[in-house]
Design a protein that fits this description.
By secondary structure, the protein is of the alpha+beta class. It has two domains: about 140 residues, TIM Barrel (Alpha-Beta Barrel), CATH 3.20.20; about 80 residues, Golgi alpha-mannosidase II (Immunoglobulin-like). It is built from eight helices and nine strands. A six-stranded antiparallel beta sheet has the order 4-5-6-9-7-8. The longest helix is centred in the first third of the chain and has 13 residues. The protein starts with a helix and ends with a strand.
C-alpha cells in the first residue's frame, strides 16, 4: 500500500469512528454479476484489517444511496441477499439496517422527494434481524472476537469463518451463490462442544470435525452454549 494512501487512511480514521465499507459492498455486488470472486472480497476484508487500530467498518446491503440509485438488496444480490446480511452482522465491524429492510422492501425510494415506505406490509424479516442483533448484543465473539477464515472446496460460493472470544465461539457459513447442495468440511478445535443454531434454536454436539450442506442462498450460524 502506497505511503500516501496509508496516510490518507490514517487521517480519515482520526476524523471518523465508523466508516462505510463501500469497497466491500461494491465487490459483493460484482461477485453476483460474476465480475469478482470471493477471493477478491477476502482481499478487501484483509485490507480492512490493516487500517489503524479502532477503525470500524460499517457493513450494509442497502442504504439511502444504494436503494435509490442502484436498487434494493433483492435487485443487487438476489437469492444471496439474506446471506450477505448475515455476514454484515457477524464479521468484525458494525452492521447497518436501512429503512424497510425488515419488511423486505422491494421499492426504489425517491432520493430527493418524499417517498413513503409501505409499512402495512408484513415485517417478514423482523425476527431475522432481531436474532442477528441479539447475537451481536450478547456475544463478545462477534463484537470483539478474533476471526478464522475456513477453507472450502467451493471457494467462490461459500464464505465460512469462525469468531472466538475466550469461551464464546460462533460458526458462520454462507452460500452466496445460486448453486445448491454445496458441502463443506469444518475441521477446527474451536468447533468442539455444544452449539445452538441461532435461527432454529436447535442444539448439536460438535466434535471439531463436522460436515455441512447448504442450499442456494442458505446461511448457517451456530453459537457455543
Amino acid at each position: 500500500m502506497a505511503l500516501d494512501v496509508i496516510w490518507r487512511i490514517w487521517y480519515h480514521h482520526q476524523a471518523f469512528d465508523v466508516t462505510y465499507a463501500w469497497w466491500w459492498m461494491h465487490e459483493t455486488g460484482r461477485h453476483v454479476k460474476g465480475d469478482a470472486t470471493l477471493h477478491d472480497i477476502r482481499n478487501v476484508l484483509h485490507a480492512y484489517t490493516q487500517y489503524p487500530s479502532g477503525a470500524i467498518k460499517l457493513f450494509f446491503t442497502s442504504n439511502h444511496d444504494e436503494n435509490s440509485w442502484n436498487g434494493t438488496e433483492w435487485e443487487k444480490y438476489g437469492i444471496a441477499a439474506k446471506a450477505w446480511a448475515v455476514f454484515s452482522f457477524t464479521w468484525a465491524g458494525m452492521p447497518l439496517i436501512y429503512s424497510g429492510q425488515e419488511i423486505m422492501n422491494q421499492k426504489r425510494l425517491q432520493f430527493f422527494d418524499k417517498d413513503l415506505i409501505e409499512w402495512n406490509t408484513p415485517a417478514d424479516l423482523h425476527d431475522f434481524y432481531t436474532i442477528l442483533a441479539e447475537l451481536r448484543k450478547k456475544n463478545l465473539a462477534i463484537t470483539i472476537g478474533e476471526t478464522f477464515v475456513l477453507p472450502s472446496t467451493h471457494n467462490n460460493e461459500l464464505m465460512a469463518f469462525l469468531r472466538k472470544k475466550e469461551a464464546a465461539v460462533v460458526l458462520v457459513i454462507l452460500n452466496v451463490s445460486d448453486k445448491g447442495r454445496l458441502c463443506i468440511d469444518v475441521n477446527h478445535p474451536w468447533l468442539k462442544g455444544t452449539f445452538k443454531n441461532i435461527f432454529s434454536g436447535l442444539t448439536f454436539q460438535f466434535s471439531a470435525n463436522e460436515s455441512f450442506e447448504l442450499q442456494a442462498g442458505e446461511y448457517i450460524v451456530y453459537e457455543s452454549v
